[in-house]
Design a protein that fits this description.
Length: about 150
C-alpha cells in the first residue's frame, strides 16, 4: 500500500480553516473519515478544533482497531458519535477480509465507545456476495443486542 507523505496531508489547522469556511456556507455536520483517522497522531486535537466551531454534529468513521484506547479522549474532545466499519462478525473471516488480526479489539472498541458516551454508535457492513452475505441476519441480531 502506498502511503501519502505527511507533508501532503492537510494540517489540523488547515482542516479547521476549511471547516470554518464550510460552516459560513451553511454546513453544520462534520464526519472525520480516513483512510483510518485514529492512526493520525493527536486526532483528538482535530476533534477539539472542529468541536469548538460548534457544528450540530461531529462524527467519526473508523475501522475500530484503536477505538478502545481513544473513545474516552475523543468524547472529551467533543466527538458526539462514531461509526465502525465491520464486514464480518467471525474472527477468522475478519482476518481473511482485512489481512490483519484485531477482531477482539474492535468488539472492545464498541464497549469503550458506549462507556465514553458516544451516541449513537453505528456499524457499517459492506455485503460481499459469496464472502459475508451469509451474515446479514447475524448483523441484525448483533445490532439489536449491542444497541448499535
Amino acid at each position: 500500500m502506498t502511503l501519502v507523505a505527511p507533508g501532503d496531508l492537510l494540517t489540523y489547522e488547515e482542516i479547521e480553516r476549511v471547516a470554518a469556511a464550510a460552516m459560513k456556507a451553511g454546513v453544520q455536520r462534520f464526519r472525520i473519515t480516513g483512510g483510518e483517522p485514529l492512526v493520525r497522531r493527536g486526532i483528538e486535537k482535530l476533534v477539539e478544533k472542529l468541536a469548538r466551531l460548534g457544528p450540530d454534529d461531529l462524527a467519526l468513521t473508523t475501522n475500530g482497531l484503536h477505538l478502545g484506547e481513544t473513545a474516552a479522549t475523543l468524547r472529551e474532545a467533543g466527538l458526539k458519535r462514531v461509526t465502525v466499519s465491520l464486514d464480518t462478525l467471525r474472527s477468522g473471516r475478519f482476518e481473511t477480509i482485512t489481512r490483519r488480526t484485531g477482531f477482539s479489539r474492535i468488539l472492545e472498541g464498541f464497549e469503550a465507545a458506549r462507556r465514553a458516551g458516544l451516541h449513537p454508535i453505528k456499524v457499517n457492513m459492506v455485503v460481499i456476495r459469496g464472502i459475508n452475505d451469509d451474515e446479514i441476519e447475524d448483523f441484525v441480531r448483533f445490532a439489536e443486542r449491542e444497541k448499535v
